[in-house]
Amino acid sequence: MPTKTESANPRYALILAGGSGQRFWPVSRDALPKQLLKLFGDKTLLELTVERLEGLVPKSNILVLTNTQQEATVRQLLPDLPKENIIAEPEKRDTAPAIALGVGWIAARAPGATMMVLPADHLIQDKAAFQQVLLNSMKTAEANGALVTIGIKPTWPCPSYGYVERGKRATITGVKDAAVFEVTRFREKPNPDLAEHFIAQGNFSWNAGMFIWTLPSIFSELTRHCPELADFVSEVRNSKDFDATVNKQFAKLPKLSIDYALMERASRVLNIEATFDWDDVGNWTSVGRYLKEDSDGNQHNCALSQHEAAHNIVFSQTGQHVALLGVQDLIVVAAKDGLLVASRSQAESIKKLVDGLPKELR
């Protein structure tokens, strides 16, 4: 059971660090998804996510939610976090139950806290701009009790993201250097034509899955729109045996996304557009943008020789020298126990390949 702390309006962060590892096979596995991989240097995306909060949220107020398959690795990567701040979901139940668990855990410590919900698998390099947006978002949530979501300005009509439709601009006391908008509605992943329409309209942002609210506000909204989750929050908050309560009750909760369960129904949601760089690193082509690139457009993280080869992505964990001859638009990924050779155009379909692999390679 978390230790109760006294504070007028402390700030907490919930980092969602579960998920599977299919799109980055053979480097990723079910027990080693992308947030636990070192794709961009010597640190994982999870470690980088925690580092971005330094100076904004004390480590004692950072909660990491993972699953039983990945718990040991998460604990190994984050030895400086208190042991009780890393929690493994007993069963996968989607983002709404996961966030409700975080709300209950924080409420047991500080029922008046402000809470941020952040994914662990995004690449954001401008720490200062990121923290400023979060600070403005927290001030906004604290000023009027609204639920706040951070939006990413679309750079192309992507059909793989959810979208947030913005309405009129909002004036928030104490927040002068941020564009805050009323949210008209959340839109599910659109088809390509509808995505084009969203971009042309100009008042849509990508839904990055980053949310900020005060605990009283989120509990009030859950009580109105999803009482089953509100009851779970109360049980967790008041439990004398935190682990036992979670193990008994969590698997009974409905599998719902936070967007569907709450954000689409809440009485007031505000959107703040990000001023920081952002990449959700959805597949190997996303990784390629951050690798070394030769004059023929081959992106690589290892020693590479090539002849009449262009626009390939080469990623190796083995230290071997890779040679390409007469090939174009390939993804070549070498792990210790697997090798992937795929068409670059099939990056999004790698997860379909993984489903047919031997169990020990998934």
| Low-pLDDT ranges | 1-7
- How would you characterize the largest beta sheet? 5 strands, mixed, barrel
Strand content: 15-25%
CATH fold-level assignment of the largest domain: Spore Coat Polysaccharide Biosynthesis Protein SpsA, Chain A
Count the DSSP helices.
11
Q: What would you note in describing this structure?
A:
- The chain is of the alpha/beta class and 362 residues long.
- The protein folds into 2 domains: 11-273, Spore Coat Polysaccharide Biosynthesis Protein SpsA, Chain A (Alpha-Beta Complex); 284-361, no CATH class.
- Helices cover 28% and strands 24% of the residues.
- It has 11 helices and 16 strands.
- It has helices at 45-52, 71-77, 95-107, 127-144, 192-201, 215-225, 227-238, 242-249, 258-263, 284-288, 350-354; strands at residues 11-16, 62-67, 86-89, 114-119, 147-152, 163-169, 180-187, 204-214, 269-273, 292-293, 299-300, 304-307, 313-316, 322-325, 330-335, 338-343.
- The protein has a 5-stranded mixed barrel with strand order 5-8-6-7-9.
- β1, α1 and β2 form a beta-alpha-beta unit.
- α3 packs parallel to α7 and α7 (227-238) packs antiparallel against α8 (242-249).
- The chain is globular and about 60 Å long.
- Residues 1-7 have low confidence and may be disordered.
